[in-house]
Amino acid sequence: MFHLRTCAAKLRPLTASQTVKTFSQNRPAAARTFQQIRCYSAPVAAEPFLSGTSSNYVEEMYCAWLENPKSVHKSWDIFFRNTNAGAPPGTAYQSPLPLSRGSLAAVAHAQSLVEAQPNVDKLVEDHLAVQSLIRAYQVRGHHIAKLDPLGISCVNFDDAPVTVSSNVGFYGLDESDLDKVFHLPTTTFIGGQESALPLREIIRRLEMAYCQHIGVEFMFINDLEQCQWIRQKFETPGIMQFTNEEKRTLLARLVRSTRFEEFLQRKWSSEKRFGLEGCEVLIPALKTIIDKSSENGVDYVIMGMPHRYGRLNVLANVIRKELEQIFCQFDSKLEAADEGSGDVKYHLGMYHRRINRVTDRNITLSLVANPSHLEAADPVVMGKTKAEQFYCGDTEGKKVMSILLHGDAAFAGQGIVYETFHLSDLPSYTTHGTVHVVVNNQIGFTTDPRMARSSPYPTDVARVVNAPIFHVNSDDPEAVMYVCKVAAEWRSTFHKDVVVDLVCYRRNGHNEMDEPMFTQPLMYKQIRKQKPVLQKYAEVLVSQGVVNQPEYEEEISKYDKICEEAFARSKDEKILHIKHWLDSPWPGFFTLDGQPRSMSCPSTGLTEDILTHIGNVASSVPVENFTIHGGLSRILKTRGEMVKNRTVDWALAEYMAFGSLLKEGIHIRLSGQDVERGTFSHRHHVLHDQNVDKRTCIPMNHLWPNQAPYTVCNSSLSEYGVLGFELGFAMASPNALVLWEAQFGDFHNTAQCIIDQFICPGQAKWVRQNGIVLLLPHGMEGMGPEHSSARPERFLQMCNDDPDVLPVSNTGPVRTASIGFLLLQAQKCRLIIFTPKSLLRHPEARSSFDEMLPGTHFQRVIPEDGPAAQNPENVKRLLFCTGKVYYDLTRERKARDMVGQVAITRIEQLSPFPFDLLLKEVQKYPNAELAWCQEEHKNQGYYDYVKPRLRTTISRAKPVWYAGRDPAAAPATGNKKTHLTELQRLLDTAFDLDVFKNFS
After folding, report:
1. DSSP letter, residue 298
2. Strand boundaries in 850-955, DSSP class E
3. Domain spanning 244-581 has what CATH number?
4. Which residues contact residue 443 at a Cβ distance below 8 angstroms, ignoring those fewer than 6 apart?
5. What are the helix (H) ranges across 755-873?
6. Which of 44-58, 229-243, 561-575 is predicted with the least confidence, judged by mean pLDDT?
7. For 250-262, what is each residue's pLDDT tens digit?
């Protein structure tokens, strides 16, 4: 195990400054009180009863009192209470009340004890010293625990670790005190039924609890009940006991884990599989967590893990995927039967419902597919777990839970781990506790921890959410099983995160064909000598008489036969079905009465009564005695006026879209930074009472009786983690609309991994259906490089339609005019919507109710409908565009008096590209030059995507000119004057024929 430096390995109590810091964080008056107490240890004590008492022990007594006031004598309790209340020195101590006549005998007895033992101060000091010793073990015992199965501790900078038994002098004790009996404080359970023990036995029991094969980090938790719970689980004598049946089950699971890897190695020795050798105990560990959780009522476990650390083994022996389906993945001659690219076998996921044989309860297991980006699946798993809890009404996480597996280097090195932890207790994101299992093979890729992290443990990031961390030597299977049981019980009891750190090693290199001796020669010399954990544990059980050698060998033969039979069946597979690896099925969604469901969409316009009702709710406060902000009152009044005038802006159209879907029973979840109010103060879906803290109102949830719920939640300041979470949430059900809105469109940059690895190729790689919608504010408005472009070119580059092939029929589904149906389509395909900024309040960017009534449809292309369309032969120029630039072009066209000479066509749906509708537009204006206009730079935006498709549409009969900004490295200028100059040049190019051709 990699340990700390010498100073960290020694078991020492908190220093005075550390104590002040610790308690000043938890109790407002603690620092002041502590300084008062310290003054009592001056040569002339301020309190007579403290005379001759060491300040160290007063401080320790104060620490104990803060943790539990009943753990100290009543006189100390009164003294500390008075001091906390601000009593000046000399007045805090109060003499005990006079005793009754019946207590005189007790007083006489106490006096005789004092006379018999005049050195009472020494006795008190010794007991306080023992309390300090116990606390030191609880705080720092894990630093000298025997956690490393290799025993090399190559990050330990000590020449020789200091042991506690030789360091008792530090606490004011000596060797002669080892046989003295000391009263045990209430903050320890090492005594069991005994309230006092000899010091030697106290030390022995503390070492057994905290310094063997389990190291416990928990004393940073600021909840006394939780600390006491953990102490009881590890300090109680004899608590870690297993029956012979449990030991035999553990051995059988180790056999399956080990022999599975050995089978793959024999059959496909030159194939990468990223096996589990060195941490074979992971499989029984996961099964123990699942067994205990099932026993506590959980019936659905959602898991995430990297491609490394035995993913195939987890699929085979935990999820229980058919072995033949795994083995046929190794056959390079098999052809895929499903559309898409597929993925390597150690990235794929699985969904399976089966009987848990230990509890005889049904349990559903899902392993989420994950790319090579190791921890990228963490927030996805959390989001999917949250969704499953939401849809089954599991508000406390008692039925659905998540397990996340991590590698040690990735756990410490990847920021998404930190982002995911910080979602764990947020009301709209909590999954009520996740069990994190770290496969700590003490090496990341080819880098040892001294170069890979700055913290002593890879798990230190978990301390930010007060998650207990259980380090355990993976070569002690029973210790691992016990820790996993405790972790599952912790999650069930407190519904908070917990970490199990399996300290192990990696028998092979970075993969099965890698040579690890290049970079870690000393470690791998030791590994070559290391006896496998299965062999070691089998020898232990044979020596204990739990099993005999023939029984052990029979268990091995039985599983080997299972693997061989599955291998033979895998040869009969003619084609490879990736659908067998689907981790989030949507049963029944793509079929209707046994037939494929049509993906085309009828009109979803709304009646005027419905539009008016939603608009009226959107412009009111449906809760009595609720005070809103004065500025918001004006916004709601403006909305009401729009409803009366039968018009909508973007915000009101969005409101009506959401409201109509809620009426149809479609759950909606909108998440992101500032989404409750809207980044541009346009949405206001959550109203806040100006006089009552935390009192809010969501009018959208007051639209209809029996409507679906609307969840709108401001997120943490995270894009990567939150987008991954929402992707996972959308994965759970097709009958929901899940949206993530970026504060500004380009802020999705830091979530690019989720877009590139999950959203774009997820269907092709994993047959994973997902309806996530991204709302990305976009527009060049002189706000600088980081608040302008949502980088549409990146998303268009990911689209897989062929720019050189003109489709025979319409390439995209028919969609309706209502934005509501456009969003409803998100249940069937992923949507990237570039939302407006300045157009949110632009008077020309409003629509009439008439465009949203029954019979209306979404227009993939909005053609010219002005004078130019009345006389198409006279049109000299046909401009194609999309987005905000349309309003700049129409304004400039009017200013130049070219309304009849220039036609402007808007492309509202860029992908799938509307070849058919654009061909009609080109044919309508036979004498017109063609140009694509955009406000983005030429190497950005839509031009590279649109140009070849326009040329294919017209069979290259005409040139397609470009009007827009020059190529640039930055998305936009940060200078307002330069921005306006660039915009004017764009407009000059679009409307001046000579500039038009030369510039293009």
Report:
1. -
2. 861-862, 877-881, 902-907, 929-937
3. 3.40.50.970
4. 409, 449, 505, 506, 516, 520, 523
5. 762-766, 792-797, 819-824, 867-870
6. 44-58
7. 999 999 999 999 9
